[in-house]
Amino acid sequence: MRLKNKTAIITGAGNGIGKETALLFAKEGANVVVTDINEEAVNQTSEEIKKSGGKAISISHNISCENDWEKVVLKTLDNYAEINILFNNAGTFLIKPLIETTLEEWQNLMNINVAGTFLGLKHVIPVMMKQNGGSIINNSSTAGLAGSVGVSLYGASKGAIRSLTKHVAMEYGSYHIRANSIYPGFIDTDMMKYRGEIDQSNEQQQSKGVPLGRIGYPQEVARTVLFLASEDSSYTTGAEFVIDGGRSAGRSPSKGEMYE
Ligand SMILES: NC(=O)c1ccc[n+]([C@@H]2O[C@H](COP(=O)([O-])OP(=O)(O)OC[C@H]3O[C@@H](n4cnc5c(N)ncnc54)[C@H](O)[C@@H]3O)[C@@H](O)[C@H]2O)c1
Fold first, then answer.
1. How many structural domains does the chain have?
2. Can you cite a GO biological process for this protein (predicted)?
3. Is the CB of 37 under 6 A from ligand 1?
4. pLDDT (tens digit per residue) in 187-207
């Protein structure tokens, strides 16, 4: 077991990547604190964990609300006394051309994706400092690494998460706190289905330009998060992990086009 007796907070654990990570962490022996704004979904995650013999508590949590973060930290310490791992995973998405995006939409998305991640760091790092160690994993996106069309606001929020992670790695490394970020590509979750509805694309279209020829699955992201949470990555901090089937590695030449 790679996380035996470790305590992990996972946000957005009611669905998708967060849920699969919670299930995997529990199998690896962690005490899992699963949180989500969707209370019913996150209760379901903790029930599934407990039914299969794992340890979990669920908390209703809006990541952009500072009082909610205080409650999450207190409840975690009351139950398990430590916080060893934080997976800042919850986030939201918007497809819209930049010039049609309203200031309200900008503020709302930044408040969830960026302020939500910042608040998690702000409230969990002091606990990890007292313990003299911990592992933080922030969920960015390949949209935070390179430009795309229609996702400028989302991409900017994920770029901010990339930068925050590196600053945290520098600022708190002396306390043996590691901070790394992950960059999923097209992963089969409800978030991708929403994206599919908007541009009428389907799984086949999403797989175009992916060297491995398919979309990814949340379980595949969860395994990278497990590596970063565990001692297997003990000398890794401030690093970036792309999980996109190779899509961002380069550009496939179209038919008849010369290789450059
Ligand atoms: N699916 C993809 O293709 C993909 C690609 C790159 C990055 N990501 C990132 O992965 C993370 C997880 O997304 P997913 O694909 O599993 O989607 P998902 O929709 O399955 O899960 C997202 C979860 O976050 C929760 N959530 C949303 N706003 C919240 C808030 N304010 N407070 C607390 N919880 C909130 C939702 O209720 C949901 O359970 C997100 O940060 C997303 O940006 C996803």
1. 1
2. bile acid metabolic process
3. yes
4. 999 998 765 554 545 677 778
